[in-house]
Amino acid sequence: MLCIKCKRELPENAAYCSYCGKKQTAKQTVKQAKYHKREHGTGTIRCDKRYKKPWIAVAPASKYGQGRQYIGCYDTRREASEALDDFIRNGKPTLYNATVGNIYEMWSKTHFKSVSDSAVQLYSVMWKRFSGVQDMPIRELRTAHIQEIVNAATSKSSCEIIKTMAVMLCKFAMENDIVAKNYAEFVKIPKFKKKEKRIFTREEIARLWQHSNDKRVQTVLVMIYTGFRVGEIRALTKSSIHLQEGYIVGGEKTEAGRDRIVPIPPSIPELRSFIADWLSSPSEKVFDITPQKFRTEIFDAALKEAGIESKGLTPHSTRHTFASLSSSAGIKPESLQKIIGHAKFATTADIYIHQDLAKLIGEMKKITR
């Protein structure tokens, strides 16, 4: 070996130069490993630093008589290479052919544990809209397929829920290295003309009172005078009703609406007797019933009993009716906001407060010459 300084001949592995005294430890230069291109027909590995797992493995185009097939994203090139080699040897991965329906089943088992019963019911109903793609491999699902489902919905809220579900399903597939892109994120929500929600008129409320000996009608009247959503009414338990103190604790959906205090109107003593009957329920839950049965067996049946045309009226109409009655009665905006469970009064005013024609005409009479 030669001295790294004076270049004189030294014994092999000498620690110091016997001529100039220089220590024979040179700085080691680390050369970055050079990756060789894979052989033709064995797939491709590429790096895309936009992804959390940047190394992407793609199967060869001729393997199954199809185009180039995405295998997955990996932390390192070695992992991607091993996955690709395993694919070449053994065929497609277990989840490679997972359908949209398969992904929904796997996703829902985990996701449904973290949401309310009403949310589970809503997802289950919306899932039926995916019937046309449920048997399709999710790796073949594209924006156009999801957009078609969204476009078939009849309300903005339904469109948003469908898109949200599709985004979560595709994200689940990405987390399991089945797809590389979340095509649901590119779906556009159609514009809808804002429709005025139908509320119970004073004449219809009077009809309900005329039939208030019916327990189903009593339930609708309590909803009209408390503003509880149908899911919130169904979630009520005996312990959440404080009859002697005159209020109910309930609510869900948002932070502002969850577990809020809703007073029972003291000027309507009949409501207390209606609610008192709820406490005779054999179970802790006041209404141990599905949303669909609540709609048909309680709400629709109550309207039929009172002789009210049900077209345009839903259980949620009671909440809109409550907001309008409260506003007309002069309840302070900040109080109504807390009772109805909104973080901002603008939401209450823009969506829930409805003015009847007679009141609007009365207001117009104030304009004089």
Mean pLDDT: 81
**Sequence stretches where pLDDT stays below 50 over 5 or more residues:** 27-32, 342-353, 359-369
DSSP, total strands:
6
Shape type: elongated
User: Biggest sheet, strands in spatial order?
Assistant: 1-2-3
Outline of this structure?
The protein is mostly helical. 42% of the residues lie in helices and 6% in strands.
Write the layout of secondary structure elements.
Elements: E1 44-47, E2 55-58, E3 70-74, H1 77-90, H2 100-111, H3 117-127, H4 143-151, H5 156-175, H6 202-210, H7 215-226, H8 230-235, E4 241-242, E5 247-250, E6 260-263, H9 270-278, H10 291-306, H11 317-328, H12 333-340, H13 345-352, H14 357-364
Antiparallel strand pairs: 1-2, 2-3, 4-5, 5-6
Helix pairs in contact: 2-5, 4-5, 7-10, 7-11, 11-13
Question: Describe it for me?
Answer:
The chain is 42% helix and 6% strand. The chain contains 14 helices and 6 strands. The chain has a 3-stranded antiparallel sheet, covered by helices on one side. A 3-stranded antiparallel sheet has the order 4-5-6. Helix 7 (215-226) packs across helix 11. The N and C termini lie far apart (112 Å).
Quickly list its features:
369 residues; mainly alpha; three-stranded antiparallel sheet; 14 helices; 6 strands
